[in-house]
Write a structure and sequence with these properties.
Layout: H1 2-22, E1 29-30, E2 82-91, H2 97-103, E3 110-112, H3 120-125, E4 130-134, H4 140-148, E5 154-161
Antiparallel strand pairs: 1-3, 2-4, 2-5, 3-4
């Protein structure tokens, strides 16, 4: 499953690169609201906002069968060193990242993983819905497990492996 996720992510990156060459965009950092703006509710009390009235759910293309691999979505460990203080999520279509940050008490910031234009194609393949989310260092695994329990808002969530170090 890991290779399938990597293959799907590579496909997204290739498409995003092609789109970015046609209409260059810049990564947009999205910060979390200040503590005064976040209502003092727990996750179970927070109402789930309905999808925006202007949002159309677009079908995700079927890329055919993928090679099996170890599950990563929602796993509290990858078996390799991971980046501290950050996780990777893909939100569902028609969800706003600011609402996700507030609803689940995530400190942020949220930075779009793939800086692409908001086209129907990019939305359908999920390229516009991947974010690196700042979390308190040491809580990465717990946040991955917690967010995985909310498939109504979160399509995918995982820890981020540390990039390999190069010998000089």
């Amino acid at each position: 499953m890991r290779f399938g996720v990597i293959a799907a992510f590579a496909t997204i990156v290739v498409v995003a690169t092609a789109v970015a060459q046609r209409s260059p965009g810049t990564p947009s950092a999205i910060t979390s609201p200040t503590p005064e703006q976040v209502p003092s509710r727990t996750v179970s009390e927070a109402p789930t906002a309905p999808p925006a009235a202007r949002c159309r759910v677009l079908p995700t293309p079927d890329y055919g069968p993928q090679a099996p691999h170890a599950p990563v979505n929602g796993q509290p460990s990858l078996g390799v060193p991971t980046l501290p203080g950050v996780i990777l999520i893909e939100i569902r279509q028609c969800r706003e990242i600011q609402a996700i940050l507030a609803k689940y008490g995530l400190p942020g910031p949220a930075v779009r993983e793939i800086p692409v234009a908001e086209s129907d194609e990019n939305i359908a393949i999920g390229a516009t819905r991947w974010f690196r989310i700042g979390v308190l260092p040491g809580t990465e695994s717990a946040m991955v497990v917690e967010l995985y329990r909310h498939p109504e808002d979160i399509e995918y969530v995982q820890l981020i492996p540390e990039p390999p170090r190069r010998a000089i």
